[in-house]
Design a protein that fits this description.
six-stranded antiparallel beta sheet; 157 residues; alpha+beta
């Protein structure tokens, strides 16, 4: 995103500021141990190091460090700040596993990761596994958030 910014004191001076907005920037890193909900998954298998996979994920998510630890398996859990859905990311050499209760999040990951993998000329095979229970779980989560908004809007009318 690029936006002009002008200071309040000097109106003749303006500066163009640019901010990188990542595709899943509204997901926050959390420290949950157990995810007790149905999850769909997206598995990538191919030829890439942990550092390559980490570099790709770094461009998608907020609060992900630029460097990884010693090439060992890494597991991260992110929560959406809007819907409360969860994404578990596990990766190691030549393998990336994304699990989420929101199929839309997996779709965004797949689209963006495919673009970045093609740019880096890495070879990966993608295997999606959709759990239909995760779809109903997501609809219940959205329903819980939308009903109070609907009641408020009907009260105002």
């Amino acid at each position: 995103m690029v936006a002009p910014a002008a200071p309040m004191s000097m109106y003749k001076v303006a500066k163009e500021l640019s901010y990188e907005i990542r595709p899943l920037c509204l997901h926050c890193l959390t420290h949950m141990d157990d995810i007790d909900r149905p999850l769909s998954s997206l598995k990538y298998a191919g030829s890439a190091s942990v550092d390559d996979i980490h570099g790709i994920l770094y461009k998608c998510l907020a609060r992900l460090g630029e460097r990884t630890s010693d090439g060992e398996a890494i597991s991260l859990i992110y929560t959406s700040s809007i819907t409360g859905t969860v994404v578990r990311i596990t990766y190691k050499d030549n393998e990336l596993l994304l699990e989420s209760d929101n199929v839309s999040t997996l779709s965004i990951f797949k689209e963006y990761l495919t673009k970045l993998i093609l740019e880096k000329r890495l070879r990966f095979a993608c295997t999606p596994e959709i759990n239909l229970e995760s779809v109903t779980w997501m609809l219940r989560l959205i329903h819980e958030k939308v009903c109070p908004q609907l009641a408020l809007s009907q009260k105002l009318l």
